[in-house]
Amino acid sequence: MPIVSISLNDEILSELDKLQSTMGFSGRSEAIRAGIRTFVSEEKQKSDLSGKIHAILLVVHNDEFDHVVSGITHNFEDLITTHLHSKIEKEKCMELFVIDGEAEKISTMTKNFQTNKNMDTVKLVAF
Questions:
Q1: How many domains, in total, are found in the chain?
Q2: pTM of the predicted model as reported, rounded to 2 decimal places
């Protein structure tokens, strides 16, 4: 089996250790493999989307990155039917977008958030 090395900051490592413990994984590698399987499965499902779709996009970030969210949002205004912004704890914000449009463009919007290192969580649910 090939070996892949990754670097994690202390916060993510601590969260990984908590998941390992609470979910019963035998080690960090097993927990990481499960996370990768989930990520691959979700991405495959999104890549199978086509035509006009309805979706909900959830984004969590630190409030200092509101300007980044605004920049991405402005590029996809034609897709967004509803946008809710909520402060969820001290400096964390949650954005909820209800979006309608072509699957390819919704995928592009999602990828813009996913590939931005300032976003903590990005989750797309499509219908």
A1: 2
A2: 0.73
